[in-house]
Amino acid sequence: MKGTGKWTVQQAAELSVAAPTIAASLDCRYLSGLKEERENAAEILKEAGLKEEVGAVKSGIDKKRLIDDVRICSYAQGMNLLRAKSIEKGWNLNLGEMARIWKGGCIIRAVFLDRIKQAYQRNPNLASLIVDPEFAKEMVQRQAAWRRVVGTAISAGISTPGMCASLAYFDTYRRARLPANLVQAQRDLFGAHTYERVDRPGAFHTEWTKLARNSNAAGVHALN
């Protein structure tokens, strides 16, 4: 994928300049393109019992659960990066075997790698660790605790970029339909790029400025 967003993030990394907001917007663009994966993830996590209930923070228990979910997201992103490079180069990497090798001869020797190996043994073509049945079930069970801790940190003004980024990744990946759809409406506004609708096929264009004027006029008329 080309574009100024990609080039900007690449330059920021090369120059050691923090640009998390720009990087987040680029990540959202990439995730938006994974339509089929997101639809599949939405179904899998729904079947695993995902609910939006949050509640109050439960001290150390919540923190432990949060760390476990953040860890899954981190490994999922790393494995997806390896998978993408393997496809690009035609390497045909065995991701489960790589996890086994790392545990035996790498600084990353966590027991967690055994579970990653098992996940890829169950499904060598796994799109993401997040949708592995075992990992999906655990993330669903712990996600409320994750939200409680992140929400408390935000309210207290405590910076938790890794935790917040992981939660945003999880929430974006599990949605069949994203707010990013509105970006195309903006593009149609400033460049008449047209957009597609969910209720009928075809490309559409709207005179947004004219529509806004008419809406404002109707509102004023209603007040009078």
TrEMBL record:
Domain 6-phosphogluconate dehydrogenase C-terminal: 1-209
EC number: 1.1.1.44
GO biological process: D-gluconate metabolic process; pentose-phosphate shunt
EC category name: oxidoreductase
Pathway, per record: Carbohydrate degradation; pentose phosphate pathway; D-ribulose 5-phosphate from D-glucose 6-phosphate (oxidative stage): step 3/3
Keywords of the record: Gluconate utilization, Oxidoreductase, Pentose shunt
Record-linked Pfam families: 6PGD
SMART domains: 6PGD (SM01350)
InterPro entries, A to Z: 6-PGluconate_DH-like_C_sf, 6PGD_dom2, 6PGDH_C, Pgluconate_DH
Any one GO molecular function term: phosphogluconate dehydrogenase (decarboxylating) activity
PANTHER family in the record: 6-PHOSPHOGLUCONATE DEHYDROGENASE
Family in the record: Belongs to the 6-phosphogluconate dehydrogenase family.
Protein name as it appears in the record: phosphogluconate dehydrogenase (NADP(+)-dependent, decarboxylating)
Source organism (scientific name): Linum tenue
Species classification: Eukaryota, Viridiplantae, Streptophyta, Embryophyta, Tracheophyta
